[in-house]
Design goal:
This protein is an alpha+beta fold. The protein has a single domain, classed as Alpha-Beta Plaits, CATH 3.30.70.120. The protein is built from 2 helices and 4 strands. It has a 4-stranded antiparallel β-sheet with strand order 2-3-1-4, covered by helices on one side.
């Protein structure tokens, strides 16, 4: 299993989660669509060559985003990441994937 963490703007939360769930994320035992989420504030500054969904090049931007954590089976991670990138409005979504130990 892999724990996937992704940061999603408010208006895209449900669409990105649904895309990841449809690709196989969030299954734990006899349950699906499992995740944990918390609202916070993200910060970034678009650089030259960027095409920002929010903000202007060379200006700091702060936005309300959701930190969403969910588990993904090893054989589903490529499909889930592809679905995340397809559904996410940002040019470069921020996410990380951490391999979990089965203890």
């Amino acid at each position: 299993m892999i724990k996937l963490t992704v940061f999603i703007p408010d208006e895209a939360l449900d669409a990105v989660k649904t895309a990841m769930f449809d690709a196989g994320a969030g299954k734990i035992g006899n349950y699906d669509s499992c995740c944990w989420q918390v609202k916070g504030e993200g910060q970034f500054r678009p650089l030259i060559g960027s095409s920002p969904h929010i903000g202007t090049q060379h200006q700091f931007e702060k936005v309300t985003e959701w930190r969403v954590e969910l588990v993904v089976a090893d054989d589903k991670i490529a499909a889930v990441i592809a679905a995340l990138k397809q559904a996410h409005p940002y040019e470069t979504p921020a996410y990380d994937a951490i391999k979990l130990l089965d203890i």
